[in-house]
Each structure stands twice: as C-alpha cells, then as structure tokens.
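The records we work with from here on pair a chain with its fold. Taken together, the tokens spell out the fold as the letters spell out the chain. The record below shows the convention in full.
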Amino acid sequence: MGYIRDSYVQYFYRKSDKRKLQPIINRGYFARVHLIKKLIRAFCTLYAPNHQPTQTEKIKVQVVALGAGFDTTFWNMLEEYKATHDIYFVETDFEDVVAKKSRVIGANSHLHDVMTNATFEKGKPVHKLVNC
C-alpha cells in the first residue's frame, strides 16, 4: 500500500498476499492505524508528562489488543518507547491466527530477538499471545 511506514509488517505479509483493496478500505485501514498510534502515544505520555524516567525507573505500560491479527503495534511500541517505558503487551485472537503469528515470530530471528532482548519488570516476558 505504501502510505504507512511500518518496518515490521513485511515479516507477516508476503508480496503474493497483497490483495487489491477498494480505495475506501485502504483509507479506512490508514485511518484506523493512524488513530491507534495517536491514542497509544497519548496513553504513554498521559500519566507521566513531567516524569523523566531512568534506566532503572521506567514508566510501566500494559496494552491488551483484542482481535490483534497480524498487527505490529508491539514491535513499533518497543522501537519508540523502550528507552522510557516498560511495555507489557497481550494480544488475543482466534487459535489459528495466534498459531500462525507464533510461527512467523519463531521463524524470524529479527522479530524474535527484539522480543527476547526486551524485558518488563525483573525479566518478565514483554509479549504474550492468547487464544480466545
């Protein structure tokens, strides 16, 4: 599509998966992604506007994504906020979607390394996929 900058989406979609969507769907997708990013930025700054976190004292953020699909928000949040925030991310979706996303993450060293190098509060995992 080319109008959203996301360096992680390439790992979840192959060029052969690309469908030709109607322009109104593309605009709707763009608007949704833009709004979610804007809300996350507002959420991440809401509770500590004057707080200057240190490496040992970061702002804790927990996100639960319902029907997450192959969303890449987790990786984008880590990229943007890992220096200032401890992020705990839970994604839920149908079993087949969660299984496929888990396989993609496991098969891709870059996605997997980003997840394993990030921690949330005393080494706890930062990302969890849950079947619904």
Observations:
- The chain has a mean pLDDT of 78.
- The longest strand covers residues 85-93.
